[in-house]
Design goal:
Blueprint lengths: L3 H15 L3 E7 L12 H5 L4 E7 L2 E6 L4 E5 L5 E6 L20 E8 L5 E7 L6 E5 L22 H8 L6 H5 L10 H11 L18 H21 L41 E5 L2 E5 L6
Antiparallel strand pairs: 1-6, 2-3, 3-4, 4-8, 5-7, 6-7, 9-10
Helix pairs in contact: 1-6, 3-6, 5-6
């Protein structure tokens, strides 16, 4: 499933075409994705201007002038692509062919830009685990309610991380995947952040808090590692795994920088470490780490 950096990359790819554009019409080619479309989905969007595109955790949001907040999730295989109305695809760099079957094009937004140009933004989702929902103005959708702090910017630091994890006996990796604590972190980047911080995914979450209850060195290192790995991945364009592609069809390249994820049996990349990357299963998910240098 695309994680925060992938969703942020998609947002940035869609932003130049969608922000400020007017939705001429919306095609829905089936009654549902993971969930049924909201009642009068196309009608409530058609004719309205897209004020801004946002992101909350792994959700894309679109603020619609005089209308609802549109919430989109890519699911396992969802992707957007941009096409001009004359049929010319926006160029992209392809490493692996993505789905182009029209049978998987489930939603099409027909847009008019302020300068008079026209484009189509197409949502393609072979597995149909993605979804599009509405939140009415002034009401927070349950999907967004209770989400934790974003691991971008300056909000997440050692002191806040210590507050979030203090007293928790769950494994550190499991706690970091709790979306009510930190929003948007997923399996890939938690594994990478723990490696950068030199912390074992097996240790209890509360063990990174100092004996006096403060952040301590471990919490500070982990907060820095989380923020840096997310920032690096966004800058590199996310990670391309299975079906994930950018809005323009190109693929993410942070996967070439993985230090532990999907590197089972390979030597650790930390200078001076002679360990070997191992894979374990935690809460039904693969965890990759170096037992020699992650303690």
């Amino acid at each position: 499933m695309p994680e925060l950096p992938e969703v942020e990359t998609v947002r940035r790819g869609l932003q130049p075409v969608m922000e400020g554009a007017r939705i001429l019409s919306v095609e829905t080619r089936r009654p549902d994705l993971r969930f049924p479309f909201p009642p009068n989905f196309a009608e409530r969007l058609s004719g309205r201007k897209i004020i801004s595109l946002g992101r909350r955790a792994k959700y894309l949001t679109a603020d619609i002038e005089g209308g609802p907040l549109l919430i989109c999730h890519l699911g396992m295989s969802g992707s957007f692509r941009i096409e001009e109305e004359d049929g010319g695809s926006t160029p992209g760099v392809f490493h692996h062919e993505r789905s182009k079957l029209s049978s998987h094009d489930h939603v099409i937004f027909h847009l008019a830009s302020p300068d008079g140009g026209k484009a189509k933004v197409i949502f393609n989702d072979p597995r149909r685990f993605g979804f599009m929902l509405f939140a009415d103005a002034g009401n927070e959708h349950p999907m967004l309610a209770g989400l934790g702090v974003e691991p971008t910017g300056n909000a997440l630091g050692g002191a806040l991380l210590a507050d979030l994890l203090r007293g928790k006996k769950a494994p550190l990796k499991a706690a970091l995947l709790d979306q009510t604590l930190i929003a948007g972190l997923g399996n890939i980047y938690v594994s990478e952040a723990l490696w950068r911080a030199g912390l074992s995914p097996r240790r209890s979450a509360g063990s990174i808090v100092s004996a006096k209850g403060g952040p301590g060195v471990r919490a500070e290192k982990l907060a820095d590692a989380i923020c840096s790995v997310i920032a690096d991945a966004i800058e590199a364009g996310g990670s391309s795994l299975r079906d994930y592609v950018h809005a323009d069809g190109s693929l993410g390249y942070f996967q070439h920088s993985f230090s532990v994820y999907d590197r089972e049996g390979e030597p650790c990349r930390r200078p001076g470490c002679r360990g070997t990357i191992q894979r374990i299963v935690q809460s039904g998910r693969s965890t990759f780490y170096c037992p020699a240098c992650q303690r």
